[in-house]
Design goal:
With 217 residues, this protein is of the alpha+beta class. The protein has helices spanning 20-30, 38-50, 113-125, 164-170, and strands spanning 75-80, 88-91, 97-100, 104-107, 134-140, 144-148, 154-156, 182-186, 194-197, 209-212. Residues 1-10 and 12-61 have low confidence and may be disordered.
């Protein structure tokens, strides 16, 4: 008797799926499938099912502990070579701007120091100073805030490369009620908190609010 190939049960090649258990499972499912191509979809699904779950969102630190961007409250020291009248310290206002000689208001917030340096150089070059050599450094960062289960909650000066553990130490250490495994961080301008593992590699950025929760038991 001749069987039409359209209704023949497809054969599953050995070793296509991987483990013996998965291989047998796919073979039994493929017996009801009209197209061998289903093997690849089943294999993908089983692989997805057997993969270990993601441990959770991990905070990406700024490279080498450097601050990712400037913001309101940062005080900048700006100098222009051979132009004393353009040299001084300027504090970023609540709107993220500084008022700079010749140029006027300059947007700072959200930019890194190199980005702002290039921006200011371009603005000075645009009709004010020929080939300006501009240097920008942060004289003082805006503070960070730490709340919750620490002995001295409040606002503290920020230093580059500060970690959550360093922030806790600055605030007098944990209370006896503290959950020393999790930390909640609220970024400037945002309303919600993000939960992170409390490890020595979790960084704090200027203006952030760190909250140490109370342990449940």
């Amino acid at each position: 008797m001749t069987i039409d190939a359209r209704f023949a049960r497809p054969r599953c090649p050995r070793g296509l799926v991987g483990t013996l258990e998965e291989d047998c499972h796919v073979r039994s499912l493929c017996a009801t499938c009209a197209r061998p191509l289903c093997i690849f979809g089943l294999r993908f699904g089983l692989r997805r099912r057997s993969a270990s779950p993601v441990s959770g969102f991990r905070r990406t630190p700024a490279p080498n502990g450097r601050v990712s961007s400037l913001g309101p409250g940062d005080r900048l020291r700006i100098s222009v070579f051979n132009r004393e009248e353009l040299t001084g310290e300027f504090t970023v206002g609540t709107q993220g701007l500084i008022s700079y000689p010749l140029v006027g208001e300059v947007e700072v917030a959200g930019r890194t120091v190199p980005e702002f340096t290039n921006q200011l150089s371009e603005q000075l070059r645009n009709g004010f100073v020929r080939d300006p050599i501009v240097s920008v450094e942060v004289a003082q960062y805006r503070p960070f805030y730490i709340l919750g289960e620490v002995n001295r909650p409040g606002a503290y000066p920020y230093s580059p490369g500060m970690t959550v553990m360093g922030a806790v130490a600055t605030a007098g250490g944990f209370t006896y009620r503290a959950n020393s495994r999790r930390v909640f961080i609220q970024r400037p301008g945002e309303t919600g908190e993000i939960s992170y593992p409390l490890t020595s590699s979790t960084l704090v950025q200027p203006g952030e609010t760190v909250r140490i929760p109370e342990r449940l038991f």
